[in-house]
Amino acid sequence: MDAIAVYDDGDDPELIDVPRPTPASGEVLVRVSRVGIDGTDHEVIAGEHGVSPDDDDYLVLGHEAVGVIEDANGTAFTEGEVVVPMVRRPPGTENEYFQRDEPDMAPAGQYHERGIVGAHGYLCEYFTSQPEYLVSVPESVAQYGFLIEPVSIAEKALEHAIASRAAFEWTPESALVLGNGSLGLLTLAMLDRRGFDRTYCLGRRDRPDPTIDIIESLGATYVDSRDTPLSRVSAAYEPMDLVFEATGHAPHAFETVEALAPNGVGALVGVPGSHQFEIDGGTLHEELVLHNKALVGTVNSGRPHFERAVETLDSLPEWLLDDLVTDVVGVDTFERAFSDDDHTIKTAVEF
Ligand code: NDP
Ligand code: ZN
């Protein structure tokens, strides 16, 4: 069957032929419909992130999938049911994080991530899975079901950030998303529907730009970081109750503290590489303490976040999904799904 993989010594994704997997006892076989591509895939291809399975010198890419049960193999699933797979799997034996159903909280070394770390992904015609790592989804979200995984990332980050403010009366009104990539834009749309009165999104693009169009169609304010660096956003616009960092630009993690209102929280999801720069650590430390501010880093997502993401995706307006997903390509033109120009927001490969 067709699979799209990157070799350990390769620079680009390649179309390869691999055997169609056979489900082991207790596993199901899933026929892949669509797989979304994101910044993480680009990092894996560039060799900045990710590890191939022990026995192979290549990694089948893809962690944002939607598919259909092809062979239920005696499990509670039925053939034809639409499913979205979760990303993490136990690295061999199950550990306490998987037993507690909190794989997203497992530290490095205690998980594999399909399509990213130690296990093949979903950019192929079929994959097998234990049923507990599949989330059943309604037909109504099947077309854009590959967005459930990225939405689940935002669900978890928002849950953890909001939980950090649960010890007191917190009524947030303003929110700023850093980054106008697909994750930032999806999160902006979610905040819009969660009762934030004023939302902002920070990017570094000139108009006309499709991401700025989406930001403004959502009723949010576009902030150009070249004119208004994050450290000046609070003065130029307003102090933010919530900042959601999705650029991966390391200074943003710290400038977030300055952008926050008293009692505010910053959720950090961007994944930077090593980046050295100067900061006034004392002032940041003082800001965090004297103004009850919090920074929360989060990665990956668990079943409750996937289940919430299904509902969220179902509630997002159709125009947004149509504008956000700029290209869905077939396997024969899969390279297009990995293009990284300013017109591309979110792409998917269709099998
Ligand atoms: P993208 O690369 O598509 O988006 C990042 C966006 O940030 C781009 O639009 C980029 O603008 C913008 N940006 C970068 N630097 C700046 C800056 N200095 N000022 C303003 N805008 C800036 O990535 P995704 O949306 O897919 O993901 C966002 C981040 O989240 C990535 O770092 C990714 O690795 C991470 N991630 C984390 C996960 C987790 O579990 N924690 C899961 C998934 C992703 P431009 O395009 O104009 O360059
Ligand atoms: Zn992703």
UniProtKB/TrEMBL annotation:
Task: Give start and end of each Alcohol dehydrogenase-like N-terminal domain.
Answer: 25-139
Catalytic reactions of this protein: D-glucose + NADP(+) = D-glucono-1,5-lactone + NADPH + H(+); D-glucose + NAD(+) = D-glucono-1,5-lactone + NADH + H(+)
* Gene3D superfamilies according to UniProt: Medium-chain alcohol dehydrogenases, catalytic domain, NAD(P)-binding Rossmann-like Domain
Amino-acid positions noted as binding substrate in the UniProt annotation, renumbered to this chain: T40, E113, E149, N300
Q: Name one GO biological process term.
A: non-phosphorylated glucose catabolic process
Looking up InterPro entries in the UniProt record yields: ADH-like_N (IPR013154), Glc_1-DH_arc (IPR026583), Glu_dehyd_C (IPR031640), GroES-like_sf (IPR011032), NAD(P)-bd_dom_sf (IPR036291)
Cofactor needs: Zn(2+)
This protein's record includes keyword Nuclease: no
> Which residues participate in NADP(+) binding?
N180, G181, S182, L183, R204, R205, T298, V299, N300
Q: Which UniProt keywords apply?
A: Carbohydrate metabolism, Metal-binding, NAD, NADP, Nucleotide-binding, Oxidoreductase, Zinc
Domain Glucose dehydrogenase C-terminal span(s) in chain numbering:
142-351
A molecular function GO annotation: zinc ion binding
Tell whether Magnesium is among the UniProt keywords: no
The EC code for this enzyme is 1.1.1.47
**PANTHER family to which the protein is assigned, alphabetical:** GLUCOSE 1-DEHYDROGENASE, ZINC-TYPE ALCOHOL DEHYDROGENASE-LIKE PROTEIN C1198.01-RELATED
Q: What exactly does this protein do?
A: Catalyzes the NAD(P)(+)-dependent oxidation of D-glucose to D-gluconate via gluconolactone. Can utilize both NAD(+) and NADP(+) as electron acceptor. Is involved in the degradation of glucose through a modified Entner-Doudoroff pathway.
Membership in a protein family: Belongs to the zinc-containing alcohol dehydrogenase family. Glucose 1-dehydrogenase subfamily.
The name on file for this protein is Glucose 1-dehydrogenase
Q: Which lineage is the organism of this entry classified under, starting from the top rank?
A: Archaea, Methanobacteriati, Methanobacteriota, Stenosarchaea group, Halobacteria
